[in-house]
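Sample pair:
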Amino acid sequence: MRILPTLLAVPLLLGAPLLLGNADPASIPPQVKAMLDAAIASGNEGEVATIVKYARAAAPDSADAIAAVADGWRNERRAKAVEMLREAGPFDLWKGRAEIGGYLTTGNTENIGISGALDLQRETVRWRHKVRLAADYQESLGLVSREHYLAAYEPNFKFSERGYVYGAAQYESDRFLGYTDRYSASLGAGYSAIKGPAMTLDVELGPAFRHTNFTDATVESSVAARGSLDFDWKLSKGLTLSQDASAYVQHYNSSVTGTTALNARLIGPLAAKLSYSVQYESMPPVGRVGTDTTSRASLVYSF
């Protein structure tokens, strides 16, 4: 609904030169200033940019003054945002998403399955913290056929606009892929290769250490190399495509995981999500298949 006032303002602005062509270059014409003040009061960057564009064309003698007012508002806005980040406490500024999906079939077949995930992120001037908890559980004819649990924490220290140092700690359990417990820790460098309003891409690379307890009672501890990518593409206002992938490469039993997802906003903070995940183990225990794939349809609540 904010677009309408902006569009209505355009004819008035275009007509301003006829009335105010001799305006003092050091001052902004009253009609133009009123429109600019209204756009700034809305707090909408898009509206301000639109008004500034037409205002500068409508009152060319005041173009520099108009730009200065808009730039001052933007700078003040950024300063307040930075100050808020600096003064925030450890429990402030957290944002997240809660995801849940499941199914139940009865009759000729009796199956039940449920999946859930919780993603939390906190962003400050220099630090970014990411937490992820996820679980998948499935029964077929009363027997457990899938059981996967994951908990991960990753702090990032941003040393530049795009570069950062990351730490990563993760716990996994998936006895159907051949391990009861797996602990991973990594430290390395990350880079925001794409950083735009509609598309982002973060890549990370560094050494890692993994400790795995396998279902056949063997235990393995090994140094590995870790790499990951996090890609998000906002296709439209309510539709987002994402691709997350990570790999641990080591001498014994390397693993690769990847998830492709399409997130469609339904109403308010609620969205529908379709995803396809692949998890690969290069050397699973005897009797286990190395690749698992999972397709999900779930609801996502953002907060």
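Residues 1-26 have pLDDT under 50 and may be disordered.
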